[in-house]
């Protein structure tokens, strides 16, 4: 029996398909998903699990039984993305990406255009074979250091870094999780539309090269004029975060009840709003002191708090306020004493959704929190208890050896390179060889990409590129859960006839337009939708609609599938639409409008280039 979508398209008439109860229920679930993704009231992975539960509970209308509901976890796209993330993690452990970035940038000097060229040239090709999300995470400190050495504002380079990674992701099937998911959906729709099939490794590389070339020329010669210098070269972090207004010195006076106690005791006495970031004892200075650090008479505590709490410190029993706000000499930032740096909350960080507890952060990460930017805005007053989200940026001070450990943590992206990076450089040739074999096996279609990638994971462990316990750290689990949640939603949209109904609406409203214009409208619609929800979710929701609409107007469904795929993987209008945009939000000091200013012209240019390229290569 034909599905509602098939029946509608088989008729190929203008008869309006009546909306059914099943369609309305599925549309309701889609609206729920959009609202949750847009408002971020729940973490992405929790939203995905909720969608599975809702779809299964509403099985009489959605057609999603428990087996179908959890099918996303066993889906080929999900497992392939998981394996590719692990392979990318293996490459990152060797330091190969960072070394490539440093070498490409070595010749740049103080020339902005050379720095932009180095950023784009080092990022785009790599992003075609490694997942672009970890590539940007690895390149943020490299590019920031390149900017600082060349007396260039990092704001001029970090958004181009993110955009270059997205464009590079369109060079191959494995460049981004969106491509892999789109390939799986296209294969599933192939039973209805003969033109559709699973993407090959280099299916759209020719078009991807054009996109990278055009986009790179824009970023190098035009885009930087549209980006303001939000962060000055070699920025004074303390000034940028207004730290001086919230730091004070407290001396432990003779006879103080805290003498002989610990930092933990002092914290309990001073209150939760006061965080002890340093302890001066004689000629030594303890950065991010542990709770068990002993205190003696004459010790000086450097504390970070809010303005209201600072005024109350004058009356603190057993302490004397010896250095108030703006006493910046009390907070040295030399490499020997304590390194200042920004750290960005990563996509799969355990800190996402947690309230900031500087005391617990100091114990876990051995770093003191001095400032916070949330959604690009400076949180000047109360940072204690502030709920953290992906892309939030913390200003921290840590001992030099701690920076190495922070850089290896998956919870945080360090915005400067550690002084003594610990990479497995001797394993780089092996890691590259494994990736080459994986790509070759998939490209030659000896085995499916899923099998090749899983074999590559095993090879990474056997050869020592990755330790077994590092497999789980390399996976961005929220992406995996997101894929598992939206895949059954896409199935419900197809099986209920909802995709066919939406396609009919498109045909009725835009069917009188030339096919090329309708194709362009789908590109624009996908790009806008991706800005408010996940790129993977937009692909799952729009691919069936695009294919049905193409068939309804007698166009090539594969052309429409490619337009949606390219648009979903290149989100330039804001920090929310794509993970890499979030990673550079804080370190670049950007505002939301900065993305629109440079991204809107790029989005428009690439929409025209992509649509025309699809028409010329595959036809419409």
Please describe what this structure looks like.
The chain has 620 residues and is α+β, with helices and mostly antiparallel strands. Helices cover 54% and strands 8% of the residues. It contains 27 helices and ten strands. The strands form two sheets. Strands 3-2-4-1-5 form a five-stranded antiparallel β-sheet. It has a five-stranded antiparallel β-sheet with strand order 8-7-9-6-10. Strand 7 (368-374) and strand 8 (377-378) form a beta hairpin. Helix 6 (76-93) runs antiparallel to helix 11 (177-189), helix 23 (515-532) packs antiparallel against helix 27 (592-617) and helix 25 (557-569) runs antiparallel to helix 27. The chain is globular, with a radius of gyration of 26 Å.
Please describe the topology of this protein.
Elements (H helix, E strand, L loop, with lengths): L3 H8 L9 H19 L4 H14 L1 H4 L3 H4 L6 H18 L2 H10 L6 H16 L4 H18 L5 H14 L8 H13 L15 H17 L15 H4 L6 E6 L10 H8 L4 E7 L2 E4 L12 E5 L2 H6 L6 E5 L15 E7 L12 H8 L2 E7 L2 E2 L14 E6 L1 H9 L3 E3 L13 H16 L5 H14 L7 H5 L2 H19 L2 H13 L4 H18 L2 H18 L4 H13 L9 H5 L8 H26 L3
Antiparallel strand pairs: 1-4, 1-5, 2-3, 2-4, 6-9, 6-10, 7-8, 7-9
Helix pairs in contact: 1-22, 2-3, 3-21, 6-11, 6-19, 6-21, 7-8, 7-9, 8-9, 8-10, 8-12, 9-10, 10-12, 11-24, 11-25, 12-27, 18-19, 21-24, 22-24, 23-24, 23-25, 23-27, 24-25, 25-27
